[in-house]
């Protein structure tokens, strides 16, 4: 019989954690699993709890930030990660086909299969879904400090940020090849999306040993509807406003400090940004199909 530690962030996203626990108690196969609940009380708790866990499977119950903390605590050991997404975006979960419906996510623990995925680092900090700088990073910062969560709040903050936005000049080096250009944003993805099926790096594969880079060129307000449609339908790579690349080592420079984000959390870095892939870093339970 395998053991599971559920690490629960009681305040992440908009998910109802009590409902998740009801689903676990109702749907998880008691003939195969024994489990415990561990609760976080502040930043960094999930990493410590995961690192100290002796369970066969450690499952994050929360959003992308909780996912990041739990997964970081499991790097370098042989335990398996699992995910019940309850966040505002849930980008990695959606990329891997893990349902945001708690009943289906719990059932995935009964029927899912183990897959190995890559991890990225941005200036030494691990991420498992997306990192980047530019317009989306500024929006991420404003979203993190907004009084409410959810897609509507994100869109509202994005529109506010767009007013008066100035395009930065970037020097972007991917595996030794450099290009210099102004850009609205530079996003690096292990998964294909920010979350909510907004596929900013639509060609990404979390298990291919590579990171995907999307550079969005300067655009006008009139271009936003077309870019948004492509973003939400996975066709961003076909736009003449977009450059899509793949690589293992990404080096980004610009004047001044970077406002950046990784797995939804905003941060600041002095220039440059060094982003790398760690292949086959994490075992995770995903749907069989």
Strand fraction equals: 35-45%
Give the proportion of residues in helices: 25-40%
**Distance, first to last CA:** 24 Å
Total strands: the figure is: 16
Number of helical regions: 8
The radius of gyration is 19 Å
User: Stretches where pLDDT falls below 50 for ≥5 residues?
Assistant: none
Tell me, briefly, the overall form: globular
What do the pLDDT scores average to? 94
Structural class: alpha+beta
Largest sheet: 6 strands, antiparallel
Neighbour order of strands in the largest sheet: 6-5-16-13-8-9
Q: SSE order in H/E notation?
A: EHEHEHEHHEEEHHEEEEHEEEEE
Describe the structure.
- This protein is of the alpha+beta class.
- 27% of the residues lie in helices and 36% in strands.
- The chain is built from eight helices and 16 strands.
- The protein has helices spanning 17-27, 45-52, 64-74, 91-96, 102-111, 135-144, 151-162, 224-233, and strands spanning 2-8, 33-39, 57-62, 80-85, 113-122, 125-127, 130-134, 168-174, 177-183, 185-189, 211-216, 242-247, 249-253, 258-262, 265-269, 273-286.
- The strands form three sheets. The protein has a six-stranded antiparallel beta sheet.
- A hairpin with a 2-residue loop joins strand 14 and strand 15 (265-269).
- Helix 1 (17-27) packs parallel to helix 5 (102-111) and helix 6 (135-144) crosses helix 7.
- It is globular and about 55 Å long.
- The two termini are 24 Å apart.
């Amino acid at each position: 019989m395998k053991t599971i530690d559920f690490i629960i962030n009681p305040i992440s996203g908009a998910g109802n954690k009590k409902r998740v626990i009801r689903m676990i108690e109702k749907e998880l196969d008691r003939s195969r699993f024994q489990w415990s609940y561990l609760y976080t009380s502040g930043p960094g708790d999930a990493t410590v709890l995961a690192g100290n866990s002796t369970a066969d499977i450690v499952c994050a119950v929360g959003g992308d930030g909780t996912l990041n903390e739990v997964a970081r605590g499991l790097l370098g050991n042989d335990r398996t990660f699992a995910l019940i997404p309850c966040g505002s975006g849930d980008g990695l979960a959606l990329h891997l086909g893990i349902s945001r419906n708690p009943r289906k996510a719990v059932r995935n623990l009964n029927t899912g299969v183990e897959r190995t995925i890559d991890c990225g680092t941005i200036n030494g900090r691990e991420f498992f879904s997306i990192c980047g700088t530019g317009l989306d990073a500024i929006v991420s910062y404003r979203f993190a400090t907004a009084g409410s969560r959810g897609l509507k709040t994100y869109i509202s903050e994005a529109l506010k940020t767009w007013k008066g936005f100035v395009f930065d000049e970037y020097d972007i080096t991917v595996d030794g090849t450099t290009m210099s250009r102004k850009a609205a944003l530079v996003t690096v993805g292990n998964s294909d999306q920010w979350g909510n099926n907004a596929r900013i790096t639509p060609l990404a594969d979390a298990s291919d040993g590579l990171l995907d880079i999307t550079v969005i060129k300067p655009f006008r307000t009139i271009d936003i509807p077309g870019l948004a449609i492509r973003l939400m339908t996975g066709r961003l790579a076909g736009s003449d406003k977009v450059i899509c690349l793949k690589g293992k080592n990404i080096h980004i420079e610009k004047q001044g400090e970077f406002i950046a984000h990784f797995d939804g959390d905003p941060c600041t870095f002095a220039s440059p940004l060094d982003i790398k892939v760690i292949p086959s870093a994490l075992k995770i339970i995903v749907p069989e199909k």
